[in-house]
Amino acid sequence: MPTLSAPPAPWTAADLLERFGPIPLYRIVTDPPPGEATEEDAKRFTDGAGDPCELVDGNLIRKCDMGWEESYLEMEIGRLLSNFVRENQLGIVLSPKGAYRLFAGRIRMPDASFIAWDKFPDRKPPIGRRVFALDVPPDLAVEVISPGNTNAEMDEKLVEYFGYGVRLVWYFYPAEKRVRAFTAIEVFKDYREGEELTGGDVLPGFSLSVKQFFEDPFPPDEHSAP
């Protein structure tokens, strides 16, 4: 997988700006120093009280802060996917802390992901082995786009995902109530309310209204039957 050349550690502010562009500075972890972070550091942040962090060229990049609505959407996506996958015994769905080692020095954590059983050796996930990052690619990677994400960042992730072997990528845009489904880096279709998002060959039989993903949470009508 080709990567952008990284300057020698420690990185300067100019190095970070050139590499990552205008991402919010709070997302770049400064301890360990930029350019010196390892996979163990990413694991420590994710397992501990810190924020989940992706590892990019020796830098820990915090996952974007989300408002409650984006967080709710993230959970709904995971729930709806997991319900379908479990019912049809297709594989497993991982949460936003599910980490993947795309290649040496690169750890990514999609907001949700699906892995078919066939991706695992002997069709068995590494249960009980406390593996931090999986070396198998998910079949589906999902990202909820937040204000703190940049276009360059999401374009880079897309290249990495498909280079790693991901078959389908969904980008959810909460403000627009839109889903962009990629089947290749430059091959995509936008889905909006009133349309059905399908899983194609990756999730055969999966079809759900885009509106259902973005429905606002309301309590049951007090006059409705329990």
UniProtKB/TrEMBL annotation:
UniProt-listed Gene3D superfamilies: tt1808, chain A (3.90.1570.10)
Domain Putative restriction endonuclease residue range list: 44-210
One Pfam family of this chain: Uma2
Protein name, as recorded: Putative restriction endonuclease domain-containing protein
